[in-house]
Amino acid sequence: MTYLQYHLTFIVPVLALLLYLTRRRAGPLAGLLNADDRWTRGWLLGLVAVAFVYTTPWDNYLVFKRVWSYPPERVLGRIGYVPYEEYAFFVLQTLMTGLFTLWLLRRERESAPPAAPWVRWGGAALLLGLALLGAFCLRQPQSFYLGLILGWAYPVLAGQWAFSGDLVFSRPRLFWTATLLPTLYLWLTDAFAIHEGIWHIAQRYTLGLYAGPLPFEEALFFLTTNLLVSTGLLLFLHPESRRRLERSLPLLKPWLILSALSLLLKVPVPLWPAGFPLLATASMLALCGAALSYAAGLSGEARAGWTRALGMAALGLGAGWAVEYLGSQTGVPFGRYSYAGAPGPTLLGVPLLVLLGWFALSLLATRFAGGRPLLAGLLLVAWDVGLEPLMTSQHFWTWHDPRPLWAGAPLQNFLGWWVVGSALSWAFVRLAPALRRPVSGLDFGHYLPVEALFLPAGLWLLGMPGAAAVTLLVMLGALGLVLALARWRA
Question: Where are the domains positioned within the chain?
Fold first, then answer.
């Protein structure tokens, strides 16, 4: 049997039946295919598009690594590393599980009230924890496939659950039925396809555990993908979810989108360690864009705000270049180090990543500290505790100081960070007094606590667990001190 024959035998007939049942079934969602309910139809088609776009690079990487493989005689052809039929599976499975979920929903006559709040936040925390577990699994070949699944899908599931997990789980029987029945069916057809040699799972990338005839990871894959589909549909088809979305849209500021992009660009590093210079520079560029956009909105006047923001960026970049060039040439103010052989683009011998960091990180620290320069400088020192082992391991700079304190850097380095960071923070506050406002709600400064988790996790994944533990303790300690002082002053 070929991959195309698999689709024609197992997937297309079921999909045709679901299309028929969904079209004729009366109920609250009647008219999906008659264009009466544009929201439902649009969200299903949007979910298909998102699944296709999001899965394509992941699947290509997975086949490139030969976690999955397909005999040439069983497929029609390939785009990249993936067969045509595999791309079709992205669409067909999403439609199949989605239509089955809609058919179940049409049997419901009333909207269910949200589940308890702990379901929402507890579920999001659990799913995010599984995503972090996936990142650690990528370090060993036998857990590689598991890590790819957890690291790829579970951050999305965690985000879905954080937004409306209480709404998704308001009908637990419907939720599990919509997820598990398609999963059971696909487990059976997948076992048949593996037995027939339509595709193959590499044993060296699996734990060696089996769920019936399937490798554990393969069973988890179909459960996970169906969770993504059923959760995505139930998420936005609850009336309350639409109201939450309408309330959330005004909060989607450019700085928030760019901050999220900055974090997302860090995620592929465990899969592509050699690409660290490129990914780190791109992530910092996105963070600088977020900082610039946030600074422009502080004054409330568009033209004046952008003028002031550009002045702050010029100050941060200019001062950053000056102190780094002086420091790498003379040892003042940070100690003796050099940028010889630094990867990535440079400006007159100083890596672009470092220059961008002085603006973005200083503004972040200033905002989280509520415009208090000395505390902002302290936050930057805590950040540098993690940056030193990370950047020296990636050869961005090399220390030559005879009196190292941490990761080759002397005490003078951390004093220099505090002085320069505090001075930049002081200048930023003079240019934008609104930085003194208390941090509340969704704010640019909240990137800093997130980075307090990302940076230690990155160190751990790069094989530096000791540096990761110290960085986590120091950054959380500095953040806790700033918050405690803010409450005391209030």
Answer: 3-250, 255-489
